[in-house]
Write the structure tokens for this entry.
Amino acid sequence: MRQRVLDMSFVIVGSLALDTIVTPSERKERIVGGSCTYCSLAASFFTHPKIVGVVGKDFPQQTIQLFEKRKIDLRGLEVTDGKTFFWEGHYGCDPNQRTTVKLEMNAFADFRPTLPADYKKADIVFLANIDPELQENILRQFQNPKWVAMDTINHWIENNKAALLRVLEKCNLFFCNDEEVKLITQEVNLIKAGKRILEMGPSLVVIKKGEHGALVLGKNFVFGVLAHPCDEVVDPTGAGDSFAGGFLGYLDSARSTRQEVLRRAAVFGSVMASFAIEDFGIERFKSLTDSDVRKRFIAFKKMVSFKL
Amino acid sequence: MRQRVLDMSFVIVGSLALDTIVTPSERKERIVGGSCTYCSLAASFFTHPKIVGVVGKDFPQQTIQLFEKRKIDLRGLEVTDGKTFFWEGHYGCDPNQRTTVKLEMNAFADFRPTLPADYKKADIVFLANIDPELQENILRQFQNPKWVAMDTINHWIENNKAALLRVLEKCNLFFCNDEEVKLITQEVNLIKAGKRILEMGPSLVVIKKGEHGALVLGKNFVFGVLAHPCDEVVDPTGAGDSFAGGFLGYLDSARSTRQEVLRRAAVFGSVMASFAIEDFGIERFKSLTDSDVRKRFIAFKKMVSFKL
């Protein structure tokens, strides 16, 4: 079904964070999070991603060891004297209602990385959610990536749309959620909104819809993937990044962007997102096995299958 | 793929209406609508449904002829001297935002039908959206239906929940949308909400989610069906009723409620809903062919297919 290859070439650029998460039933203080963290852990079930990011001295050594155990390439990870990027988010009873209560850039404020030489030759680059100007700056350092993907959040669409659109133009794949795609395109219909994105640069757009799954729109095809039916969302944080990690990690291992591969990639994305939300932070990835991933992939197949 | 059978046994009880529909781009005055109308037209592509309802003298003869052409059994349709049930609804830019502006019960106010003798032997009964006390009253007249399905709207959940729950208890299948199931169960999580419904009587619940498709929950299975990707929703009215018509019409033609049949039924439901919204009122059903239905069913299959 999937394979690990020796010649890895997938680089993830994004945040590593300490998050304070408040849900209607619990509060977790300064647990490990960040777009790059979730994405690389999810991707590590398919390939050996290389990461680019920065943490402070307060970032747990245990998580670094987890990265190492999962064979994530950490040569692009800077450790500074300052503090790690911090985010506090509160969720309502509806896990789609999220409020950012606090955001401290900390180590990320002055992060201007220089990529290790062999990172620059990456085939797949994922610009996870960070300041689009930083995404742009880092993207320039790659020599000839075959497949560039990006993610963003409302904050950047509202505050630095110009830079965001410049990065988007250079992307093959745009990951967004339903709110974000409507905000960028000013279209309420998701299909129309997705098609507008395809006019802005990318040849593929993945619109994540939380409990409703995701839509994949290409120039000539539409693929729909459901979310795993979950009656207990413990912590929705990182679902989108885990989706991207599963998607791109699988793509890297398959070494192809044929439609058939993209479809499977989207299902693996949804599978990895479904695990991420089962526990706080990155907890679920600590015990997750290849066999769990494979079983859920098969469950997804069953969930949508019907005969002609 | 599907078959027409001679021994029909599917009765639909619901409204036949004149609707004034206002969308952001158009206004249509007093066009034909109603839950029974949409449902029976959709079902007529699979079987020959029998309908129970009432219209006034102002109901277009042309629509009666369309029913006859589609081989819908009209012996349970009363024509009174009064006026046809009237509804005025306005849609926002987001087609899920609907406001009821006017509602006149008219002929439905005193509707207490006595069913034709052979209607009473129906195998499948669909209690489409009407006053749950009327649903209850009519349901009593059936001798031994094998499969009873119902639909409702927020109005009855808010204003006559007691009667609604009594009908629900006697149902095998409950059709609802995401808002309604949350309102009845007070659960925000759709899977939890669906499971609660399964404790209230039905052995199956279909949660319709508009552009996000539908979830089918049984005691031992979950099936997810997408909506047809549509970039131009002309008029969302009747989508839910058309879903039920496709679902139950197919079930009646297949004469089985095996899981495999229920899955296909849900896809046919989604297919028929996707046609309903392509034009105002029942317009789309006038030109629709069996071949169109079959083609879209196959497109649905393609949209969700991926290989292990």
Notes: Residues 259-276 of chain B form the longest helix (18 residues). Chain B has eleven helices and 13 strands.
